Amino acid sequence: MDDNAGLIRVAASESAILNGVAVSPEGRVFSSFPRWMHGPTPCIGEAMPDGSFRTFAIGDWNDWHEGMSVTDHFVNVHSLHTDADNFLWVIDDGAAHHQPYLPGAPKVVKIDLRTNQIVRVYPIDATVAPPKSVLGHMRVLGKHGFITESFHNGIIVLDTDTGATRRILHGLPQTQADTSIVPMIDGREFRRANGQVPQVHMDLLELSNDGRWLYFTSLFGPLLCRIETKHLIDASLSADQLAAHVEEVARIPPCAGVTIDKRGNIYFSAFSENAILVLGADKQLKTLAADPRISFPNECDIGPDDYLYFPASQIHRLAGFHADGKSTVKTPWEVLKIKTVA
C-alpha cells in the first residue's frame, strides 16, 4: 500500500503495539513489541513478504509472564538496533506495563542474525540503572555500546567485550526533560489518564556515519545535542570535563525516533506533527512527509534500500492516555517506509 505522501506499508500488526524498527544490512526488518498492553506479544517480530509479522522465536525467550525468570526471558522489549556486522541488539528495560523494572530484568541481548542465535546477554545492574530506571535506545561503536536511560537521565556505556558498564552525562540540563513542554497531538494535549504529562529525559541517540559524534535528545526535545565519542569512552574524564564537551546542534520538536542516512542527513519521528522531519547539512529542519497515517512515529531506521522505516505506534491513543480509560487506537499498527532525500 502506498499513497500520495510516498508512504509504503511494510508490515502491520492487528493485535499488539509495536514501537520500534531495526533493519539489518541484508534488509531484514524487525520490530519491537513492548508489553504495554494486556495480551500476547511477540516481543520481537520480523516482517514477512506478505506484510505480516512472524515472532522471532529464540527458545522460550518471548514467553515470559509474571512469576517466570527475568534473566533468560524478554520482560519488556523497549527497542532494537542492528549493526553493520549483522547483529541484532535487543534492549529489555525489564518494566512491563510501565511499572518499575523487576530486579535483574534490565539487560541487553546480542543476537547473531546469521544464525538467529543469542550470543551474549549483558545484565544492566542497579549500579548504573538504579530503581525506576528505563533503558531506552542503543547504538554500538566498536566494542562500546551506548544506551540511554530516560527516568533518571544519562547514558550507560557498555564494554561489549567485558560486560563492564559506566553511567555518564547524568543530570545535565541537556539530558533532562523540559517540564514546560506539553506536546499537542491531533488537537489534544499528550497527558496520561491521571492528567500528568510524561517526563522522559535522555532517550534518543544516533551515531554519525564516521563514528565521531553521538547525537542525543530527550523525548520532547527541544534540543538535539552531540558529543564526540572519544570523550564518551575516556573513563578518565570527570563529569564536569565530559559535560564541557556537549554541543547543541539544533532545536527540534517532540520526537520519538532519530536516525541518520549515508549522506549525513538526520531524520526525526516528529509525533506532535504526524511527520518525518529531516535535518541536512544546512542545519535547516524540513518536512520529509506529514500525513495522518504517521501517527506517533517511533524509533526509525534506514535500510540498505535507502528507505526510512518507522512504526506508526499510536501511543497517544492507548487507554492509558485518556481520562476515560478507553483506547482510540485504529488497528492495525503499521510499519511504513518512505524514500530518503537524495
What does this molecule look like?
There is one protein chain. This protein has a four-stranded antiparallel sheet, with no helix packed on it. Strands 2-3-4-5 form a four-stranded antiparallel sheet, with no helix packed on it. The protein has a four-stranded antiparallel sheet with strand order 6-7-8-9, with no helix packed on it. The radius of gyration is 18 Å and the shape is globular. It has 342 residues and is mainly beta. The chain has one domain (8-339): TolB, C-terminal domain (Neuraminidase, 6 Propeller). It contains two helices and 26 strands. A hairpin with a 4-residue loop joins strand 17 and strand 18 (223-228). It has helices at 229-232, 239-243, and strands spanning 8-13, 20-23, 29-32, 44-47, 53-55, 77-82, 87-92, 107-112, 117-123, 135-141, 144-149, 154-159, 165-168, 184-185, 188-189, 202-207, 213-218, 223-228, 247-251, 258-260, 266-270, 275-279, 285-290, 301-302, 307-312, 333-339. The longest helix has 5 residues, at 239-243. The chain is 3% helix and 38% strand. The mean pLDDT is 96.
Key terms:
single chain; 342 residues; mainly beta; Neuraminidase; 4-stranded antiparallel sheet; 26 strands; globular
In short:
The protein is mainly β and 342 residues long. 3% of the residues lie in helices and 38% in strands.
List the helices and strands and how they pair.
Blueprint: E1 8-13, E2 20-23, E3 29-32, E4 44-47, E5 53-55, E6 77-82, E7 87-92, E8 107-112, E9 117-123, E10 135-141, E11 144-149, E12 154-159, E13 165-168, E14 184-185, E15 188-189, E16 202-207, E17 213-218, E18 223-228, H1 229-232, H2 239-243, E19 247-251, E20 258-260, E21 266-270, E22 275-279, E23 285-290, E24 301-302, E25 307-312, E26 333-339
Antiparallel strand pairs: 1-26, 2-3, 3-4, 4-5, 6-7, 7-8, 8-9, 10-11, 11-12, 12-13, 14-15, 16-17, 17-18, 18-19, 20-21, 21-22, 22-23, 24-25, 25-26
